Amino acid sequence: MSITIKDVEHVANLARLDLSDAEKEQFAGQLNAILKYAEKLNEIDTNGIEPTSHVLPLANVMRDDAVKPSSPIEKVLLNAPEEEDGQFKVPAVLD
Question: Which CATH number among 1.20.950, 2.60.120, 1.10.20, 1.10.10 corresponds to the domain 5-42?
Fold first, then answer.
């Protein structure tokens, strides 16, 4: 498969890009180089190789959920610019 100038123009139109003729030539060459490399990768025999999403094995490191006492409301509300009825008071965002 090969990328033509017409293909580059089509993608540039979809992306609402105004490219010069030199840029179209440059992008066509670069995209063709990428496709050529991908074709080269397709030549590699991968039979018997298990697909992976990462080179190294990854695992989430999660701590156990543990119930802990919360900070006292009086201490928390010290950080509030305004407080009303034991809650943070914020400006209204809806009319």
Answer: 1.10.20
